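DM from R.C. (forwarded with permission)

"hey, sorry to bug you on a friday — could you get me a structure for this? deadline for the figure draft is monday and I only need the backbone to look sensible"
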Amino acid sequence: MQELTHFINGEHVKGTSGRFADVMNPATGEVQAKVPLANKAEMDIAVAAAQAAQPAWAAVNPQRRARVLMKFVDLLNRDMDKLAEALSREHGKTFPDAKGDIQRGLEVAEYCIAAPQMLKGEYTDAAGPGIDIYSMRQALGVTAGITPFNFPAMIPMWMFAPAIACGNAFILKPSERDPSVPLMLAELLEEAGLPKGIIQVVNGDKEAVDAILFDPIIQSVGFVGSTPIAEYIYGTGCAQGKRVQCFGGAKNHMIIMPDADLDQAADALVGAGYGAAGERCMAISVAVPVGEETADKLRDKLIPRIEKLKIAPYTAGDDVDYGPVVTKAAQENILRLVQTGVDQGADLVVDGRDFSLQGYEDGFFVGPHLFDNVTKDMDIYKTEIFGPVLSMVRAQSYEEALGLAMDHEYGNGTAIYTRDGDTARDFASRINVGMVGVNVPIPVPLAYHTFGGWKKSAFGDLNQHGPDSFKFYTRTKTVTSRWPSGIKEGGEFHFKQMD
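My reply, with the result:
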């Protein structure tokens, strides 16, 4: 049985807490490794190493820091297949999905190569007699990130790439369900030339999370996961005086207007609803066709597409549509919610409850499900299922459809399918959701824009990646400077105009 490690001060370090978690193979249901769960003492060692290394790293000029990321990107491309295989083996994603996970993280690292440009301050010459004013963006110090199982490569890179580009040290607490890829990423960063101690990977559970939240040396915390935990981390971290950004759950709606290309919309719904087994915070889980005719036609197009989905382990080839969910508990929760939908009166028109894969009966596979005539009082509408379950909620008008998305407590992503520019423009303007797609089902922005939801999907003032990431991982210092040149010196007892 493989025993994984922490990565502290440039070394693989065995856990000393005596506590371990099982790392499963979701396709077979077998334990494939043990991962150590850190205690506070182990976290303290990582923090001390980060604190010792960070000042020298912050003193390296931004261009040289960017060169480390340039090399890191080269190494990611070199090891793409190796990383993707490890990711698929622990998470269950198909191989193309795993490579996409890595690619979207790589793109943020590429963006952060622009650190010299992003870290420039402002300057005002001669703001007053002999007075200049200028600003600097300076590193926070030691920063940390707590990342989820569903994107074990992408989300860590969304956090640590801008953090280290800004001159910070970074402590990563990845999901204990699929920890191998974060450890491999840390190795690649040091191979790229990152000094020891600037990236630390400390595996753990709530004890490690609380050690991060209550450590006075750690200046900022990023989190992606469920909303209840996001609320806990945000509230606790802010109470400790930390800068915190947390991203929580989602219930993403796609509105399908009567004028939409229904084949295009159906294809988009199948990919966005069932890809990665629905384990994506940007998955479309609610389809809202406008008008009964639209709903009936859409349903007729969805059913055969869903019934043809190929569900198998990643080893079955690149034509697999999705694999297992991450744990037995996740599988059981999804099926429980499906049964709740049936009990509460929704029409289960595609029933995947009896799905079983020969040779993988102990794997955590869930067949695809499609509900119709779902209402907003049902649990399957209110709850983030995080599985291959799509609900159709019929709306009689555009305003009713818009209201469904606006009234839901989550506001991560949404989409509209239409040929009408006025409708699309109105939707994008009025919807109270952070990321909007127009004929795009999963509107995840590219690395040079920012990613973030609204309402109970996000907590904090700044989003992930893009320009916001450089703001989050730095503090602004403003300097007012005067160099006397024939100016009479004297005490200043009140504010004066500088003109």
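R.C.: lifesaver. The two ends are 74 Å apart (CA to CA).
me: no worries. The domain at 2-248+457-479 is CATH 3.40.605.10 (Aldehyde Dehydrogenase; Chain A, domain 1).
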